[in-house]
Design brief:
623 residues, alpha/beta, globular, magnesium, metal-binding, RHMD-like
Length: 623
């Protein structure tokens, strides 16, 4: 019987916080999105949190002719969806999924003129992992048994997090901590780094502590800091420079007794060969979800073995676990592997991929027995309660409309604003305007149902609908809406909300009375709504691209420029809601009978807009 071939390739974007292994996307208060020295620390507007400059999670599903499905997750978001749909899919369809070597080679070579590193190789990595998962599912065999079998009986883990003493308590053999301050923080920042690491050493004189510098240091700064910390007995200094930087030879020459590690953000065997050729790297740390996938990682590992250099994967959960148990040069104390301390407080361990999978294997007392990895493929079962956004629909949401240029894929003419005077979790406002809305009744029904849904399904649905949906007909200007948004955000900040959320408060702020039900009826989405504003008030952990994708996935309509509002506003309706028909100036300008909405004199519109904006601005004062 012939082996099944690939019949379908699908891409997804995972929009939720903490799902899919995107360390840039976590809920407010999580330690990993706090101040950590990183490549963007030198820029003040991006220094506070990595969420201000990250990208989204990507999911990849490959189906075979026998109905078997392989799934993998990684980084890349919508741009990666485009690469797969428009370029890489052609190499996959109709092919035997066991041909991982040639498929990897074809994708790398076909994208060489615009790829070789970064997003392109990260996209290939997720495709490759999905292929290995699919083959394992078809053969009913775990991945590690297909690439060499077991080389040990269990995996031992160290834990990355802000509290190494907690890692020790949880049974991990070591703890890796993020460096908080970088060169931009000067001598005072270096002193703070030393004091913080000295405090971590209190976890025990012999407990291994590693420091993750996240590509943020210079050669001179790294030498000075590492020299200062020699009494602290740091086990290794990780990724002090970016992979393309020349300087690891200088680090090794200055402090040969220390271990220097890197590779998390390097790609393919060619990039790793350059690192190995420096003869300055003690441990390579490729990320299986970024470096080219499992197929390329096996090549990198074979290359490293010729230099007698150990390979210790960065993160990636079960994908890297299957690799580690099958390779003899992956451990340096039994099997050293990273598990990210995903709990917001850094005091416990949660799955690397959040709730994306139902059965992600977790360490107990810092170790996992190999028998836990014996399920087919990578042993991961997708959680049906997790909302996945279909990549194909993101790229071409309306079947009657052809796919535009790549640069147009995410543009829905969304206005994103930052308000530094509000708390971080309320500092970002994203607004988009849609016309020809075709699913208003469905949206209204979902909003009502979501309010009573329980469990994970309820949380996911409320997050999917976490917008203010504002009927555009009674809105006179963008300033009108923005004034209501600021009033609602202010109420949320000082604890004076009249409604349950900042988004429902926007509707209340727009209304001329204090009646909440009337506010929703007048300004919320109704079955007859044809034009709709979508508003999201959130923190910087929600990148503008992710918000725009979620809007487009939720609202079936045409995103239009805000100037279009002039053709939408129902001026008689505005006059009715705000009781401005009796204003002498408005009455004079509109005399002569009932005016059609689009035929109101411009002077009258200007006066009405001033009245309604003032009314909204003064509502909290008068309420």
């Amino acid at each position: 019987m012939p082996f099944p071939t690939i019949t379908e390739v699908k891409t997804f974007v995972v929009p939720g916080e903490g799902e899919g292994g995107d360390y840039h996307s976590q809920k407010a208060g999580h330690w990993i999105i706090g101040q950590i020295s990183n490549p963007m620390s030198r820029y003040e507007q991006y220094k506070a949190s990595r969420v201000s400059w990250g990208i989204n999670v990507l999911g990849r599903q490959i189906t075979a002719s026998d109905g078997s499905v392989g799934f993998a997750t990684g980084m890349g978001g919508p741009p990666s969806c485009w690469l797969v749909e428009q370029h890489f899919k052609r190499f996959l369809l109709g092919v035997d999924p066991r041909d991982t070597s040639i498929l990897s080679d074809q994708m790398l070579r076909a994208s060489m003129y615009y790829g070789r590193k970064g997003l392109v190789v990260a996209t290939i990595s997720v495709v490759d992992l999905a292929l290995w998962d699919l083959v394992g599912k078809i053969r009913k065999e775990p991945v590690y048994k297909m690439i060499g079998g077991r080389t040990r009986d269990h995996l031992s883990f160290y834990c990355t997090g802000p509290l190494p003493a907690e890692a020790k308590r949880l049974g991990f053999w070591g703890g890796k901590v993020p460096l908080t301050w970088g060169p931009a923080d000067g001598a005072e920042g270096m002193r703070k780094n030393y004091e913080e690491l000295k405090k971590h050493r209190e976890s025990g004189p012999d407990f291994p502590i590693m420091v993750d510098c996240y590509m943020s240091l210079t050669v001179q700064y790294a030498i000075e800091l590492a020299t200062m910390c020699l009494p602290l007995n740091i086990t290794w200094w990780e990724e002090v420079l970016h992979p393309d930087a020349e300087g690891y030879e200088k680090l090794k020459a200055a402090l040969p007794q220390l271990k220097w590690t890197t590779g998390e953000h390097e790609y393919t065997r060619y990039g790793f060969k350059k690192l190995l050729d420096t003869k300055s790297i003690d441990i390579l740390q490729p990320d299986i979800m970024w470096c080219g996938g499992l197929t390329e990682l096996l090549r990198i590992t074979a290359l490293a073995s010729a230099y007698d250099v150990d390979v210790v994967c960065h993160g990636s959960g079960p994908y890297s676990y299957h690799f580690a148990v099958s390779q003899s040069n992956t451990p340096f104390t039994e099997a050293s592997q990273i598990i990210i301390c995903n709990a917001p407080d850094g005091k416990s361990v949660k799955p690397v991929f959040g709730n994306l999978f139902l059965n992600e294997v977790m360490p107990v007392n810092g170790r996992i027995e190999i028998e836990k990895f014996d399920a087919p493929g990578f042993g991961l079962e997708l959680n049906p309660a997790i909302r996945l956004i279909d990549g194909a629909k993101l790229l071409n949401p309306d079947p009657e409309k052809p796919l535009g240029q790549a640069g147009q894929l995410l543009i829905i003419m969304m206005l994103s604003s930052r308000y530094n005077f509000f708390p971080l979790q309320l500092s970002q406002v994203h607004i988009a305007l849609f016309t020809n809305v075709r699913n208003a009744p469905e949206l209204r029904s979902r909003l009502i149902k979501a309010s009573t849904m329980e469990g994970q399904e309820g949380e996911n649905e409320r997050e999917a609908l976490n917008f203010a949906f504002v009927d555009a007909a009674p809105i006179t200007s963008l300033l009108h809406l923005q004034t209501a948004i600021q009033q609602a955000t202010l109420a949320s900040t000082d604890g004076s909300l009249r409604t349950k959320t900042v988004h429902s408060e926007i509707l209340w702020a727009l209304n001329n009375s204090n009646n909440i039900t009337e506010s929703i009826k007048r300004f919320g989405v109704s079955d007859s709504t044809k034009s709709l504003f979508a508003v999201r008030v959130c923190g910087p952990e929600f990148a503008a691209g992710a918000v725009s994708m979620s809007m487009k996935a939720t609202i079936q309509g045409d995103a239009v420029p805000f100037e279009t509002l002039s053709q939408i506003t129902d001026w008689p309706l505005v006059c009715k809601y705000y009781k401005v028909s009796g204003d002498p100036a408005v009455a004079e300008l509109t005399k002569g009978g009932k005016q059609e909405p689009k035929r109101f004199p411009e002077a009258a519109k200007s006066i009405i807009n001033e009245i309604v904006v003032s009314s909204v601005a003064m509502k909290n004062v008068m309420a």
